[in-house]
Amino acid sequence: MNEQNGYDVEDLRVGMSTCYGKTVTEADIVLFAGVSGDNNAVHTNQEFAATTAFGGRIAHGLLSAGFISAALGTRLPGPGTIYLAQQLNFRAPVRPGDTVNATVTVKSVDLKKARVVLDTVCRVGSTVVIDGEAMVMVTSSARRNAKANISSTAQP
Questions:
Q1: What pTM did the predictor assign?
Q2: Cβ atoms within 10 A of the Cβ of 107, count?
């Protein structure tokens, strides 16, 4: 593992996994609505939300999906990870006060391109609320070393 950049592509193996957990608060929902501009009443108005199929307020789906990003960017592969693609299936609602656990698991590693595909799953308790797949670009010790070698030989 590269201390500054998390795991390099050379360190990753199929099956490696980590989890990021977060309890969704009232503040999270209000702040996400403000930042995203999504003020849909199903998220912000209990009286309206009570009349929907959900019977009450739910968190924004992309707020919960953001916990996948947190797992990727801070844990596995970690700092230096760049999102290239994310496929999401929203399976069940997340409500204020629910704790969402986002698990990412390495599915495939392309050393040459420094690309990694990961299975992504968010659960509240044992209920899958989101599942899907991410593709990310990761750091590479081989590329870093090659650049360092070029730099050191180019200096007078």
A1: 0.89
A2: 15
